[in-house]
Design goal:
mainly alpha; 0% strand; 288 residues; 14 helices; single chain
Amino acid sequence: MAVKRGMHLCGVQLKQLLLTPTTYVFLGLLFVYFYKLNEAARLLHVVTGLRLNAIGYTVGAFSSNGAALVFGLGAVAVFSGLPLVRENAVFEAVRCGRGTWVSGRILFVVFVSFAYTLIMALLCVLTSGGEVSFAPGWGKLINTLVNGYVFEGIQIDAEFRLSYTTMYTPSAALAITLAMCWGAATLIGLTILWLSLLASRIPALLAGTVIALFDFIISEKLPYWAYHYSPVSFTRMSIVSNPDMPHYPTLEYAVPVLLAAVAVSAALCYAVTLRSKAFSGILLKEQY
């Protein structure tokens, strides 16, 4: 019964998200970002007369630190409304019980993270102008770009590595990328949730922003071994599938670490919700 109530509460929250105008403003901004990001890719089609493998290209685009930064900050924006989601959060917690209430919030984070990841991938595919192919090969253009060739000075904001293009098919690489993105977005959402319940929304959003920015900071200032502590970096195939860089985390390392971090964050959400004496006060403060 508690699980059913939690799922119902999650469904109500998802409906509220779909009825919020800012949701569609955010989706519009994502479309503009990917349209501008993929401008060089579309130009490449004109210059060469060939079309990129859109699935393989999306893997490369998500492997860049710029796309990882946008993905992380976008996840912070998506979950910035936690812990409320709806204005009657205190009534929901009293009516359903704290355990059911936090279960609904956790399910909300999981489902929204999946939808957010999928939408970003679809926008990248659609705006690339490439060919959607599930063939095992990466295509002539990507194989040429992997070897460092530049067509008439056109710089594509994507990172293609021989390591992962030889290890995986485009479909498999995209599936891994999306799974890691789902996990990273879920971790950001859960971190914002339990910290907002423990303290307030401001430190929660600051923590989520730090997680989102850490990959970019590492690429600019910090040593490469710091990628081992950056969940957003795990979404980049150019990082986790690059055996030529011994200081980078491997996929075999990243998957269990990300799963463990998500599990710990979910446990903290329950612990803070069920044990915090200031729970109702924090919700009332956020609401009013």
